[in-house]
C-alpha cells in the first residue's frame, strides 16, 4: 500500500520543508496555460522531480507541496512517483496541500499557518528550486543563530556568482549589506530598477563596526525559517513575496522584533531557481554539464549527441539535420535540413523540412511546417501549428484563439503578444 498525494502523514520531529509550486506570474506563458510550472520538462524530467530529489538528499523527511493551479496533474505525478518507487519516496513523505483561492506566495504561507502543519524550524523553497546543498548543517547553523538572537526569523541561502555568469539572472541582481555575524542590514533586488544610485540607511553604518556590501551573489530561493515566519506572514497581509517579507522585517525590525541572516554558498555547492525562461535555459545547461552533481538528468530519458544536444526516447532525426546546444523531448520528428540551435523542443512535436529554430522554445504537440523560421526568443504554446514559410520572431504564439481576434479565422496559431526573452549563448 503506498501513500497517495493529498494524504497528510505526520512523523514526529521530522525535518520539514515547504515547496510552493506556483509562480503567481506570467513568466512562463503561454506554456503555463496548459502545463503546471512544477511539471515543466527539464531535460525530459519534470522540474518538481529535481526539487524533491534535492530535498531528500539534503536530509528532509517531510515536504508540504503547496499547489493552487493544475492540482490534479500535480497529484497524478506525485502518486505516479510514489507508486514507481522514485528515490525520494524511500526517505521523505510528500503531502500535497491544495488551495485554489491563494493568489500569492504569501497567501500560501498564511494558509499553511492556519492549518498548523509545521512544527518548529523548516526549509522554505520558492517555485522551481534546484540545488545540491546539504540542508541539515544549514538548519543546525540557523538553530545556533536563534540561541544568540531570539528574534532570528530567517536565514537566506545565497550563492557566490560573478556578474555575467550563465546562472545569474539579470532580473534578480542582488545587493546585500551584512554585519560581521551575517545579519542582513540591507537587501535590494536591482534587476528591475533603473536607479543608478542606491541609498543606504545611515544607521546601518553607525550601529555596526563592520559592514560588508555584497554584490557578487545570487538568490538561491532557499531559506531556513524559524517557527515565527508563518505567523509573521499571517500578521502582515502586505507580505506577498519572500522579498516583501525580508524588506518588511528590515524596515520594521524594532516593531516586529525579528531579524534576517544570510549564508553564502561557495565551491561546488549550488542553488538556483527556474523563475523565468532565461533561468530555464541556464539551469538546463548546468544540469546537462553536471555542474549540479549529484542531480542530473536520467540517462534513461536522454541520449547525448555531439554539440551539446540531448534527445529524448523515440525522437527521430534526419541525417541532414543540424543541431547545436539543443534539447529535444520524446517522440519528436525532425525533417530534412532542419536547423536547431540554442533551443528547446518539447515532446510529440513535428518539425518539417527546411525549418530553422534558434533561441526559442517549442511546446508539446506542435507542428512547424516546411521552410518556417522561429527565432529571437519566440515561444510556441502547446498544440500550435505554424504554416509553411512562416517567420516568427520574438513572439509568444498560442493555439487557442484569443478574445476579440477577428483576422484570419482559419489560422491554427495566433501571435499573442511580444516578449523580451533573453537567451544567452553558454560560455565555458
UniProtKB/TrEMBL annotation:
Species of origin: Acanthoscelides obtectus (Bean weevil)
Family: Belongs to the eIF-2B gamma/epsilon subunits family.
Protein name: EIF2B subunit epsilon/gamma LbH domain-containing protein
Cellular component aspect of the GO annotation: eukaryotic translation initiation factor 2B complex
InterPro entries reported in the protein's UniProt record: eIF-2B_epsilon_N, eIF2B_epsilon, LbH_EIF2B3/5, Nucleotide-diphossugar_trans, Trimer_LpxA-like_sf
Molecular-function annotations in GO: guanyl-nucleotide exchange factor activity; translation initiation factor activity; translation initiation factor binding
Self-association state and partner proteins as the record states: Component of the translation initiation factor 2B (eIF2B) complex which is a heterodecamer of two sets of five different subunits: alpha, beta, gamma, delta and epsilon. Subunits alpha, beta and delta comprise a regulatory subcomplex and subunits epsilon and gamma comprise a catalytic subcomplex. Within the complex, the hexameric regulatory complex resides at the center, with the two heterodimeric catalytic subcomplexes bound on opposite sides.
Location of this chain's protein in the cell: Cytoplasm, Cytosol
Domain named EIF2B subunit epsilon/gamma LbH: residues: 299-390
Domain of life: Eukaryota
Amino acid at each position: 500500500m503506498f501513500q497517495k498525494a493529498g494524504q497528510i502523514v505526520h512523523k514526529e520531529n521530522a525535518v520539514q520543508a515547504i515547496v510552493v509550486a506556483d509562480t503567481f506570474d506570467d513568466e512562463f506563458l503561454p506554456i503555463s496555460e496548459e502545463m503546471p510550472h512544477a511539471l515543466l520538462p527539464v531535460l525530459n524530467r519534470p522540474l518538481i522531480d529535481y526539487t524533491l530529489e534535492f530535498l531528500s538528499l539534503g536530509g528532509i523527511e517531510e515536504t508540504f507541496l503547496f499547489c493552487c493551479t493544475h492540482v490534479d496533474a500535480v497529484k497524478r505525478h506525485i502518486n505516479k512517483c510514489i507508486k514507481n518507487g522514485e528515490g525520494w519516496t524511500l526517505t521523505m513523505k510528500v503531502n500535497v496541500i491544495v488551495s485554489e483561492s491563494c493568489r500569492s506566495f504569501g497567501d500560501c504561507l498564511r494558509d499553511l499557518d492556519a492549518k498548523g502543519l509545521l512544527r518548529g524550524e523548516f526549509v522554505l523553497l520558492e517555485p522551481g528550486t534546484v540545488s545540491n546543498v546539504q540542508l541539515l548543517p544549514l538548519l543546525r547553523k540557523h538553530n545556533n543563530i536563534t540561541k544568540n538572537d531570539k528574534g532570528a526569523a530567517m536565514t537566506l541561502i545565497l550563492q557566490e556568482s560573478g556578474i555575467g555568469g550563465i546562472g545569474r539572472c539579470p532580473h534578480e541582481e542582488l545587493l546585500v549589506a551584512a554585519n560581521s555575524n551575517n545579519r542582513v542590514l540591507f537587501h535590494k533586488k536591482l534587476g528591475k530598477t533603473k536607479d543608478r544610485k542606491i541609498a543606504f540607511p545611515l544607521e546601518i553604518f553607525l550601529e555596526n563596526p563592520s559592514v560588508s556590501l555584497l554584490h557578487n551573489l545570487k538568490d538561491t530561493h532557499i531559506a531556513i525559517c524559524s517557527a515565527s515566519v508563518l505567523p509573521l506572514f499571517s500578521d502582515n497581509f502586505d507580505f506577498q513575496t519572500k522579498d516583501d517579507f525580508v524588506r518588511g522585517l528590515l524596515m520594521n525590525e524594532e516593531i516586529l522584533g525579528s531579524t534576517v541572516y544570510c549564508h553564502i554558498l561557495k565551491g561546488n555547492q549550488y542553488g538556483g531557481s527556474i523563475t523565468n525562461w532565461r533561468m530555464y535555459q541556464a539551469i538546463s545547461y548546468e544540469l546537462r554539464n553536471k555542474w549540479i552533481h549529484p542531480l542530473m538528468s536520467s540517462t534513461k530519458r536522454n541520449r547525448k549527441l555531439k554539440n551539446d544536444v540531448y534527445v529524448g526516447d523515440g525522437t527521430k532525426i534526419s541525417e541532414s539535420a543540424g543541431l547545436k546546444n539543443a534539447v529535444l523531448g520524446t517522440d519528436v520528428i525532425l525533417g530534412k535540413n532542419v536547423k536547431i540551435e540554442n533551443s528547446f523542443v518539447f515532446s510529440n512535436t513535428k518539425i518539417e523540412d527546411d525549418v530553422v529554430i534558434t533561441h526559442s522554445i517549442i511546446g508539446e504537440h506542435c507542428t512547424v511546417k516546411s521552410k518556417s523560421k522561429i527565432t529571437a526568443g519566440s515561444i510556441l504554446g502547446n498544440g500550435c501549428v505554424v504554416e509553411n514559410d512562416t517567420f516568427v520572431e520574438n513572439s509568444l504564439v498560442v493555439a487557442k484563439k484569443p478574445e476579440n481576434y477577428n483576422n484570419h479565422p482559419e489560422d491554427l496559431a495566433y501571435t499573442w503578444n511580444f516578449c523580451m526573452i533573453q537567451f544567452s549563448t553558454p560560455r565555458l
